[in-house]
Amino acid sequence: MTPDMSDVTRARSGRPVHHALLSTKAGFRSWWARRHGHAPPTGDTGARPPLTEGQQAGPSETGRDALSGATTLWRMRTTVKDEPGSLAALCTALAGLKVDILSLQTHPLTEGTVDEFLLRAPEELPAAEIGGAVSDSGGSATWIERGDAHDLVDAPTRILGLATRTALDAAELPLALRQLLGRCTIRSLPATAPGSGRAQESAPVEGALEDTVMRLRAPEGGVITVERPYLPFTPTEFARARALVELDARLGPRIPRSHDVLTLPEGNDITVRRADAGDLRAAKDMHERCSARTLSMRYHGPVGDADRYLRHLLSPRFGRTLAAQTASGRLVGLGHLLWDGDETEIALLVEDEWQRRGIGGELLRRLVDMAAETGCENVYVVTQSSNTGMVAAMRGLELPLDYQIEEGTLVITARLDEVAVASRASRLRERPVGMAE
Hints:
Blueprint: E1 8-10, E2 16-18, H1 22-36, E3 71-80, H2 86-96, E4 100-108, E5 113-122, H3 127-136, E6 140-146, H4 155-168, H5 173-181, E7 185-189, E8 208-210, E9 213-217, E10 223-227, H6 235-251, E11 259-263, E12 269-275, H7 280-289, H8 292-299, H9 310-314, E13 319-326, E14 331-340, E15 343-350, H10 359-373, E16 378-384, H11 388-395, E17 401-406, E18 409-415, H12 418-430
Antiparallel strand pairs: 1-2, 3-5, 3-6, 4-5, 7-10, 8-9, 9-10, 11-12, 12-13, 13-14, 14-15, 16-18, 17-18
Helix pairs in contact: 4-5, 4-6, 5-6
């Protein structure tokens, strides 16, 4: 008998996980906590939590006379009093440190104003010293984080670009929100839990803003939750996010219709294209042709529950899906790129008869490239340690990999930073013509 949802724990992507795997999940808890904790970023990211009221930054180790010509970009947010001269005092303090203000956005509040800066500062100038000067000049709740070249695009242009991406592809909405709001965790929940028939939490039509959490009514009736620890959302940010979601709702379901035809080593032509809920029937038919072992490798739970999650997995609201189909239109493979909070998961399923022909590897490479193009820092797969095909496919990416294993469950994470992706692309270009990947 198929267990009720109370007897099934769903993994982070919405997959069913039977009680037999609960001990495995418990074993991963400490690892997940280290990767997904909400402590402020540290180390070489350059991020700093807000300075407490009255806190003074320590002195610079280099001194003003030792500053070189090299510079660093910083994003800074601080709250100032809404009164004449308050912004001028802050700008004067920054000028005294030879800090250049490249852009400024203001977020009016009921009391005071949140000012958001893009700064260019001498490389030797510590973030703590910038924060200390801002605090001395009247700023409070100051947050400083390293910037990059992408921040040089002005806000209206950046927002219009995100709206365009969302208009072209419904799967872009969570990513657009993440880029709009900076470092945050975004989760989409359907109006009804997959397969359970029970309603999930909902959000008011106009949305809700509560300090570091905003809840928005999803276009299909569910809820989108956005959380950003240590940095409260402003009404301006809430209005921008709500406008982006409303645009997505007005345009309705949509995915790009481009596709590629690939020739397998034995000569068969396979079409790879984006898939959505319209492929639900074909996907269920593929499930029926798959062995119990193949379905178990993919869904990590009762085989009977696999069909119940397809509608969720095929929804562009929760990620992107690639389908592999034969010349006759038969679906033989599915690859999912799932937006999972602040992480990105990849999951693959290839029909038994079509395994070991390169289809899974092709889907995996394309999904990884998609993730890299959207700015994801890493992707991960969850599988069984006996799944040698998935292990080989991940190694074939030629990217830095991290392996975590507990009681037969294996999590492989691939790093997608610019250096790793560029190195992989260079190696692929240097391969002799005709060499298999």
